[in-house]
Amino acid sequence: MTTPEDIIDTLSFFDSWEDRYKYMIDLGKSLPPMDDALKTEERLVPGCQSLVWIEPTFENDKFSFQVDSDALIVRGLLAIVMAAYNNKSSQQIIEFDIQNYFSQLDLIKHLSPTRGNGLQAMVEKIKQLATSYS
Amino acid sequence: MNNITALDNQTNAKRKFDIKEVRSDFPILNEKVHNQSLIYLDNGATSQKPQTVIDAIDNYYQHFNSNVHRGAHALSDKATELFENARVKVQNFIRANSREEIIWTRGTTESINLVAQTWGRENIGAGDEIIVTTLEHHSNIVPWQILCESVGARLLPVNIKTNGELDYEHFTQLLSAKTKLVAVGHISNALGVINPVEDMIKAAHQVGAKVLIDGAQAAPHLVIDVQQLDCDFYAFSGHKMFAPTGIGVLYGKRDLLDAMPPWHGGGEMIEKVSFSGTTFNKLPYKFEAGTPNIEGSIAMAAAIDYLEQFDRDGMTEYEMDLINYATEKAQSIPEMKIIGSDCNKTSVLSFIIEGCHSQDVGMILDQQGIAVRTGHHCAMPLMDALDLKGTIRASFSFYNTKQEVDKLFEALEKAKQFLM
Description:
The structure holds two protein chains of two kinds.
Chain A: H1 4-13, H2 17-30, E1 44-45, E2 52-59, E3 62-69, H3 72-85, H4 90-95, H5 98-104, H6 119-133
Antiparallel strand pairs in A: 1-2, 2-3
Helix pairs in contact in A: 2-3
Chain B: H1 2-11, H2 19-24, E1 32-33, E2 36-37, E3 39-40, H3 51-64, H4 74-93, E4 102-105, H5 108-123, E5 129-133, H6 142-151, E6 154-158, H7 168-174, E7 179-185, H8 197-206, E8 210-214, H9 226-229, E9 233-237, E10 248-252, H10 254-259, E11 270-274, E12 277-280, H11 294-308, H12 312-330, E13 336-338, E14 348-353, H13 358-367, E15 370-371, E16 373-375, H14 380-386, E17 391-395, H15 402-419
Parallel strand pairs in B: 3-15, 5-6, 5-7, 7-8, 8-9
Antiparallel strand pairs in B: 1-2, 4-10, 9-10, 11-12, 13-14, 14-17, 16-17
InterPro entries (chain B): Aminotrans_V_dom, Aminotrans_V_PyrdxlP_BS, Cys_dSase_SufS, PyrdxlP-dep_Trfase, PyrdxlP-dep_Trfase_major, PyrdxlP-dep_Trfase_small
EC number (chain B): 2.8.1.7
Protein name (chain B): Cysteine desulfurase
């Protein structure tokens, strides 16, 4: 399973934006798609330009998430977030510094609420869930 | 006196439109983004500012900063003179009949809200109808929805045809004795389609309705003549026509403005205040409560001076040349579908790449230094009507070039390679 460290290593290895984006797009393509039936209004995270859905499951003290987006690069960003949050306990999720992670990846601008890609809202939602289960 | 000014402008020799020189007037065009030369194709969202506009703000704060209309000292007199001269400049720019018909606002949105909350509340009641079009920006929909909800009126949208053009026949079907107002954009922000506002104004007047034109997208591209149009209200923003943000204009026919109650209360808009009652100032000050955006107004005058030094029809021609070139190039990409085509339009290329999400395309263009807008363009009802989630919008200005169009298409090819 891809870890945040793997992603940091890989992305820091590339020196052109082309390679970085190709990698993110590949991550997006490899993210398992969500069943269309699950893509409902209730699972939608507010975003302006692209749609993001999330379905959390809590089992054996760990969270797992099904996530999807209609935009490919956002799917890549979701895969990057999932490397940090999927199959983790609420404590692990709360303790993970996602801002620092995105800074290291030079992707922090995508975590801004003004980007309108729903990513930031999704991260907030996951953190809230983790807090309510801790 | 105003007529003499207008004549002077006509007789003065116009500056030759030299694209290299024009580009050097806009310092931001030399910026690099993501280590690449900026290609700014988001003019529909906001325009860049020429040095003369930037200097006007700077000059104001270095030499004239003072509150207006207080008349207590030399600086205030000078600031007032510049501020009021700017109003006359705007009056001539849109060929209004008098300076009293020019109200400073924060922008198009505020201008439309002003009309909705003053003229609208006085003149629109239960059972009345307001007509807008499916092409409108949210700013020309939501103020009317708020009004309709509070007074019990109905908001009726004119349909569009599949090419993005307004369905004029549907418009005439919607018009009736119940129609109190037609609020329509001069040019669609999302598609660049120019609406037949002259005909619409005539038709609306025949049923006794008033007409408000949202001119936000028209002011930077077309020569506006409110008297020839015979519109009742015309709203536009400074920032889309090379002036700063936070300054805009509401034009209204004088008899309408005179009869309208004030909106915001405060300083400047009053004649006499006492606890037994307050009387209001005359036009245009009745609608200008509080200290205005003085530097914005002065810089807007500088933007008008900048535009009017050129033959504006020639600039429009140059922009049309760019959009025609881009439209032709679009044929080289089979997956590219232009939204808003085969109709009277301005220099906007709104399109989708089939099989690619517009946001993904926008991000790949951004990495290549190209600024476009992606998404619904604050026109969600239009996107719904076209059954689209959004488009990619390249909106050109007179400082863009064919080389930039070429680079846009190279960048789009790259986006396709990445995403498909």
